[in-house]
Amino acid sequence: MRKKRDPRIYTRLTHPLVRDSRDEPFRQAGWDEALSRAAAGLRAARGAFGLFSCARATNEMNYVAQKFARVVMGTNNVDSCNRTCHAPSVAGLSAAFGSGGGTSSYAEVEETDLVVMWGSNARFAHPIFFQHVLKGIRNGALMYAVDPRRTSTAEWAEGWLGLNVGTDIPMAHAIGREIIHAGLANHAFVRRATSGFEQYEGLVEPWTLSLAEKVTGVPASAIRELAHAYARAERAQLCWTLGITEHHNGTDNVRALINLSLLTGHVGRHGSGLQPLRGQNNVQGGGDMGAIPNRLPGFQDILDPDARTKFESAWDTVIEPHYGLNLTEMFEAMEEGTLKAVYCIGENPAQSEADSEQAVRRLRALDFLVVQDIFLTRTAELADVVLPATAGWAETEGTTTNSERRVQRVRAAVTPPGEAREDIDILRDLAARLGHEWRYADSEAVWNELRSLSPDHYGMTYARLEEEQGIQWPCPDPTRLEPTYLHGRLWADDPAMRGRRAPFGLVRHDPPVDLTDETYPIRLTTGRRLDSYNTGVQSGGFASPLRRGEYVELCPEDAERYGVVVGEEVRVSSRRGSVLAPVWVDTALRPGLAFMTMHFPDDVDTNRLTIEANCPIAGTAEFKASAIRIDKLPVATVRS
Fold it and tell me: Which pLDDT tens digit goes with each residue over 230-261?
């Protein structure tokens, strides 16, 4: 019997930590020493520096963090875990509409006629959003689930389309072709508001229902049913998560789904839209605040000279007129030796990046690493200086922005432990040591500076956010609220009001990079479970009746083929590494498909198996499509 492993408990950071050399352990330090050391290390790396910002911290923190990178360190090398998950959504939506936010509100999901959940087990991964979906179903909406696994979400679906991993584009193209051939395309909207339809029509023409069935594994009748249901619905919401984005062609996947909304006119209207579901409380806000390498706060393009001039005047600085490195590119620059120092705020890339062994090796190669966090994570253990921060959801004043673009106030409810300090105060004091005096009385002062520079946020004062209990951007006017949906302009009669046409994305099928073969015959896909959160640092120390730890999940047929039973430990190997994991048998899986999560890396480091094959547009890795094999151990052990 395998001894049950106790989860690692991450204790709260309460005092700054420094080490006198990489070979020595941490020692407790005062704030003055820690900040002085951090400033000296970062000063030496000017020109070879990157900053990782935090999707769990407030908008105000992300605003000050990206300002620190651009003003204090003179670089646009700033990014966050948005790169790991939804950067393809932002890139795809921006390419089509000029804005990277989801186009609808959550309330519209309750009032729509059809919901398509594509690559999303929202019942587990986005349970709050899924409550809105359930209300929509109770109000008469039909739901379809498109996912390789028959997930908990699919249990509520009118139909489940269990496609092969990495065949989303063939599926979308076949749906588009069927809509066109059945005479269900909204040609009036296509002529009015889009461009590139003729090229798109030619692109999808080869994808007949029968060919799509062969490639995707989904019966032609099921594909046809979804195509007709989506096109005939008066209102429809198309929702996706990491099953679409975490691929080497994630942006192309997103464009393929957007094409379906353009073809049918399911965008820019109440109840019809596109919903990329964000997993952390402020992934949307981090990007909105400019904590990405290609946009200034308010999603203003760094290459726009007028935008740069506005920020340069407000910040008394010169902004580099080119895009910085994204998270993926920064890790590649570590390998090349051109990125020598990193300031990591609230992220744990040592365990969240694909091919985690490689990520750790690259972090170790840095000349200097500062980590600002609430726990001593695996990443923090590699640092030269560790700065204890406050928890953004309970110990900090500010705002966050959710997946529906709703900005909401958060408030300090408890006193932070020990010497932990607010992120903004730490950044401000560190900037002062590097020659920049920023005088922010509180988080509201930061927010007001952001409002003065971002037209989309100008109308959102703290008082108004409290009064309205949250406001969706854009909100340029302090006296009125905009519609809950975006891109209504596309329906305007006046061409001048419609503005830029939304182009169809001409994207082609590109199978997963990590091919299965006789040596690695099983396709591994990864995801989340309801009971745990990301790399487990915050959730692993709390008991849950649902939690069973990490397993490699197989279908009953594959378990029988390998001669393994529930709880038996096996070796799971990919072309990058291997881990030991107990078996779980799940009837939601099909032969040749396995499932694991990233929630328990201290127990089973799943990301040792995943491949760093990145989307060339967004930089997101292909977490969803690794090739693995299962090896039975010489003496079977079973987890009790």
Answer: 999 999 999 999 899 999 999 999 999 999 99
pLDDT mean over 102-126? 94
CA distance 237 to 94: 18
Q: Report the SS3 class of residue 303.
A: coil
What are the C-alpha distances in Å from 119 to residues 144, 272, 303, 484? 11, 19, 33, 25
Average pLDDT value for residue range 170-191? 98
3-state secondary structure 457-517: HCCCCHHHHHHHCCEECCCCCCCCCCCCCCCHHHHCCCHHHHCCCEECCCCCCCCCCCCCC
Query: How many residues are given for the chain?
Result: 640
CA 215, 219, 221, 227 dihedral sign is negative
What is the distance between the alpha carbons of residues 193 and 487, in angstroms, rounded to a whole number?
10
Tell me the two tokens of residue 353.
Answer: 């990046």
Residue 195, helix vs strand vs coil? strand
C-alpha–C-alpha distance, residues 232 and 226, integer Å? 10
pTM: 0.93
Take residue 59 and report the two structure tokens written for it: 């908008």
Q: Could you give the C-alpha distances from 151 to 117, 233, 587, in angstroms and in order?
A: 11, 24, 10
pLDDT tens, residue by residue, 389-448: 998 888 999 999 999 999 999 999 999 999 999 999 999 999 999 999 999 999 999 999
